[in-house]
Design brief:
Blueprint: E1 9-10, E2 19-29, E3 35-45, E4 55-58, E5 63-69, E6 72-73, E7 79-82, E8 85-88, E9 96-104, E10 114-118, E11 121-125, E12 145-154, E13 160-163, E14 166-172, E15 177-188, E16 195-198, E17 201-208, E18 214-221, H1 230-247, E19 255-261, E20 268-269, E21 274-278, H2 291-306, E22 315-316, H3 322-340, H4 343-362, E23 374-375, H5 384-401, H6 403-416, E24 421-422, H7 424-435, H8 444-447, E25 453-461, E26 466-474, E27 489-492, E28 494-497, E29 500-501, E30 517-520, E31 524-529, E32 537-539, E33 549-552, H9 556-565, H10 569-592, H11 601-612, H12 617-624, H13 629-636, H14 642-659, H15 661-670, H16 681-700, H17 702-715, H18 719-730, H19 735-747, H20 752-763, H21 770-777, H22 788-801, H23 803-806, H24 812-825, H25 829-836, H26 847-861, H27 868-878
Parallel strand pairs: 2-12, 18-19, 19-21, 22-24, 25-33
Antiparallel strand pairs: 1-23, 2-3, 3-9, 4-8, 5-6, 5-9, 7-8, 10-11, 12-15, 13-16, 14-15, 17-18, 20-21, 25-26, 26-31, 27-30, 28-29, 28-32
The structure holds arginine and zinc ion.
Length: 879
């Protein structure tokens, strides 16, 4: 445990290290409880550092067995060891070799950082600061070395031995042991180090790069599950091709391996040449994975592969620059999925995630800039803000500069910063140079936290046929940042007239709006458009061109106009969501003053009409999925009563379902499966819409919907249809639900990843009995709090996907989560801190719940010996 947890690390304090490590030669003798690591480091004084300084290496839970300098034992007086590292007091001021042997216990490593075992497989996770749990090192990304790794293990226990880079040698040893040597010629920071040893099955493939390099591809999984890795391999090959075409990025080793493990704190990790994945994002078969799982596998395989350039070839100078690799790589994987699937549908899905995760984070106590300026625990900054908002910033840069200039800037970045540990300034300088523009105001997006609001007022002058748009922006205060400056907001817009799209858009001063782009840079600005027909509706922030909240007064008839006629699919979807939101917010108000909600028939009819003429099924499915309870809560912003939100949403869904029941039923029939399952986007869209229609039908008329859901559940030949039906049944108490849950649990008893869906569904049931159900499921034989996937599926889903029950008025949901966080903190602080994040909206609740949440947060804060991870989150949550 770190003792310096209270002292934050600050960006402004950055300075280079006093020493550099150029070469690392590791010899790792794997043993379940006593692995011995011999590290030989080629070190030299850093010309940019302080001459003669002591050499302070990071270390965590290491046992030092020996230490030599240039082959001679180091006297005990020449170095010091503490709980956080080892200091060589007066190292030579010339290149030297430091050789250390450390002993570590992979089996006892429940933090899943450093070297640990997952179902008997030895594996590593070093980002952000896990390498120091393997050997003493300058554990920071601006220290880059060339690595050679020799791995030795019992041949029966670990027949497969993998490292970074290319394999150079392997062989057998006495006593049933064997070894393999891997060498990675590309200098890298230690967070990209990895090794794997274990009994693993493999599927292989081959890829020839654009310059003709033959690359051997391997995906390693639990033996027997090889067939489930086929889609991941296919996605990898498509990613490699796409990165060459879209960004000119070519792979740079002869081997690329992916290993799937079942205990993993995050989604996956981009270690050089040896990506390690949470098996949830590798394994898929029609019977066990949903369409959403297939899409997530494709996206994450691509994401980690794309890091090879944006992350590995060009890495981060320090952890404040995390968004340099993450925001950019998320942007790249989103572009890849958009090209492989439907661009508008992908955009809608991404914006849904952005609002649900990042907007929620940005409006609460954990808000921070895309590039934070201080942290107490870096693991707590792998956030939606760094990743998703970080990607939005790149997307805005592209919108502002145009595709061609953006490409020129990217090319410059990839060429100029190759091999470097770079900063956001280095990145932006490439785009400033390529465009000849000053990007200093734009760079505020990296420094300023909070979600800007853009308020728009419109005024139509019928005589002059002009439409005036007045924009005003403001960003609310966030922790540590009270005063905000105006940011650069690209607003893509159009005008939908009764005759259709007004094109091109011209201002009264005679300029044409290229691409329909208006850039709001000042606190307030306006735009007056010429030649606008009467009864036109402005369509603003098309494609969600900036991560802002748009406040635009639109009447129901305007929303219906946009919904049916907007040329921008994103804003068609947005119009329906806005309409639904308006109805739900009014329903919440009605319910809280004990009156019955009233809804518009016109809204339900509009949805019905969409279904009658539907061609893009995936798009229609996104429309049918009305705003979530959390969406409504965010819209309300304060004094939230989750029960009222739940019932308002239920009531609207029931209303729509009963109003257009026949259309829903007909659509459901029409979209029936024909032929065997295929995970392609078009088929997935059809299944998504079919499940969405059944869901609304059952909400409006259970007597009609439930039997259909039961039939679908029983007949399903794929997981999407099966879990889709089960999710519908789960919303309706009774035997149908309990029978189906039992059948599903029995059928997939041996398949933990599928049981996770089953845990998650039950944890999300919005009924008072759910907390007891969750408690009961915690003693299910397949459940284990120690496994991050299980913990997130059950406890995480309860806390994050069941608003009314986590925020129970009696506080029992809060107490439950607090107990789990405290119980987990000693074993796996990262996971504990993630789960604790569920409290991030606590201040926006009505006062009774707010008080109950605060009590639990204070109970956690009062516990001595909290991990830095949990301590940091709880402190910030209460600040
Ligand atoms: N770099 C990984 C990715 O986004 C995430 C690793 C985060 N790990 C951690 N322990 N915080 O692809
Ligand atoms: Zn990443």
């Amino acid at each position: 445990m770190r003792t310096d947890a209270a002292t934050p690390v600050r960006l402004e304090d950055y300075r280079p290290t006093d020493y550099l490590i150029d070469t690392v030669s590791l010899d790792v003798r794997l043993h379940a409880t006593a692995t011995v690591v011999r590290a030989e480091l080629g070190i030299r004084p850093n010309p940019a550092g302080v001459a003669g300084a002591a050499l302070r290496l990071d270390g965590d839970e290491l046992e030092l067995l020996s230490i030599t300098l240039d082959g001679l034992p180091l006297a005990p007086t020449a170095y010091e060891i503490s709980a956080t590292g080892l200091t060589v007091l007066s190292p030579p001021q010339r290149p030297f070799r430091l050789t250390m042997e450390t002993r570590i216990n992979p089996t006892a490593n429940t933090k899943l950082m450093g070297l640990y075992r997952s179902s008997g497989v030895y594996c590593t996770q070093c980002e952000a600061e896990g390498f120091r749990r393997i050997t003493y090192f300058l554990d920071r990304p601006d220290v880059m070395a060339v690595y050679t790794t020799r791995i030795e293990a019992d041949a029966a226990e670990a027949p497969v031995l993998l490292g970074n880079g290319d394999p150079v040698e392997s062989g057998t040893l006495p006593n049933g042991r064997h070894f393999a040597v891997w060498r990675d010629p590309h200098p890298k920071p230690c967070y990209l180090f990895a090794l794997v040893g274990g009994k693993l099955g493999r599927i292989g493939g081959e890829f020839t790069t654009m310059s003709g390099r033959k690359v051997e591809l391997g995906i390693y999984v639990e033996p027997g599950k090889e067939a489930r890795a086929g889609y991941a391999l296919d996605a990898l090959i498509r990613s490699m091709r796409w990165d060459e075409t879209a960004f000119g990025c070519e792979y740079d080793l002869d081997v690329f391996n992916i290993v799937a493990v079942s205990d993993f704190n995050m989604g996956a990790m981009e270690n050089k040449g040896l990506n390690i994945f949470n098996d949830k994002y590798v394994l898929a078969s029609p019977e066990t994975a949903t369409d959403a799982d297939y899409a997530a596998i494709e996206a994450i395989i691509a994401h980690e592969y794309f890091h090879n350039w944006t992350g590995n070839r060009i890495t981060c100078r320090d952890w404040f620059q995390l968004c340099l690799k993450e925001g950019l790589t998320v942007f790249r994987d989103q572009e890849f999925s958009s090209d492989e699937r439907s661009r508008p549908v992908k955009r809608i899905a991404d914006v849904r995630t952005l609002r649900a995760q990042q907007f929620a984070e940005d409006s609460g106590p954990l808000a921070h800039p895309v590039r934070p300026s201080a942290y107490r625990e870096i693991n707590n900054f792998y956030t939606a803000t760094v990743y998703e908002k970080g990607a939005e910033v790149i997307r805005m840069l592209k919108a502002l500069l145009g595709a061609t200039t953006f490409k020129a800037g990217m090319d410059l970045y990839l060429q100029r910063c190759d091999g470097a540990a770079a900063t956001i300034e280095d990145f932006l300088a490439c785009f400033a140079q390529a465009s000849g523009r000053d990007l200093s105001q734009f760079s505020l997006w990296y420094r300023q936290a909070g979600t800007p609001s853009v308020a728009v007022r419109t005024a139509y002058d019928a005589a002059a046929r002009t439409l005036r748009l007045d924009f005003a922006q403001s960003t609310p205060p966030t922790p540590g940042q009270n005063d905000k400056e105006p940011v650069v907001i690209p607003i893509r817009l159009g005008v939908v007239s009764p005759q259709g799209e007004v094109s091109p858009l011209r201002t009264v001063t005679g300029e044409t709006l290229d691409d329909g782009l208006f850039v709001l840079e000042r606190t307030a600005d306006s735009l007056t458009l010429a030649d606008i027909p009467p009864h036109s509706v402005p369509s603003l922030l098309r494609g969600f061109s900036a991560p802002v909240r748009l406040e635009q007064e639109l009447q129901p008839e305007d929303l219906l106009t946009l919904f049916s006629r907007d040329a921008d699919p994103f804003n068609r979807w947005q119009a329906a969501q806005r309409y639904a939101m308006r109805l739900m917010v009014r329903a919440v108000e009605a319910l809280r003053s004990q009156s019955a909600p009233v809804f518009d028939v016109a809204f339900a009819q509009a949805l019905g009409e969409l279904l009658l003429g539907v061609d893009d099924h995936a798009f229609a499915a996104q429309v049918m999925a009305l705003p979530s309870e959390a969406d409504v809560a965010r819209e309300l912003g304060r004094d939230i009563d989750p029960d009222a939100v739940l019932h308002a949403r239920k009531a609207l869904r029931a209303f729509v379902g009963s109003q257009i029941g026949d259309t829903l039923a007909a659509t459901y029939e029409r979209l029936a499966n024909k032929g065997p399952y295929s995970p392609d986007a078009a088929s997935a869209g059809r299944r998504a819409l079919r499940n969405a229609t059944l869901d609304l039908l059952a909400a409006g008329d259970p007597a009609r919907g439930i039997p259909l859901a039961q039939a679908q559940f029983a007949a399903a030949d794929n997981m999407t249809d099966q879990i889709g039906a089960l999710a519908i049944l789960a919303q309706h108490p009774g035997d149908a639900r309990e029978d189906a849950l039992e059948a599903f649990g029995a059928r997939f008893a041996g398949d933990p990843l599928v049981l996770d869906k089953w845990f998650g569904l039950q944890a999300a049931i919005p009924e008072a009995a759910t907390l007891d159900r969750v408690r009961r499921l915690m003693s299910h034989p397949a459940f284990s709090l120690a496994n991050p996937n299980r913990a997130r599926a059950l406890v995480g889903a309860f806390a994050m996907a069941n608003m009314s029950q986590f925020h129970r008025a009696d506080g029992a949901g809060y107490a439950f989560l607090a107990d789990i966080v405290l119980q987990l903190d000693g074993a796996n602080p990262q996971l504990a801190a993630r789960l604790l994040g569920a409290f991030r909206t606590w201040r926006s609740l009505e006062h009774t719940r707010r008080a109950k949440a605060e009590t639990e947060l204070r109970r956690i804060a009062a516990r001595p010996d909290l991990s830095p991870d949990v301590s940091d989150i709880v402190t910030r949550s209460l600040a």
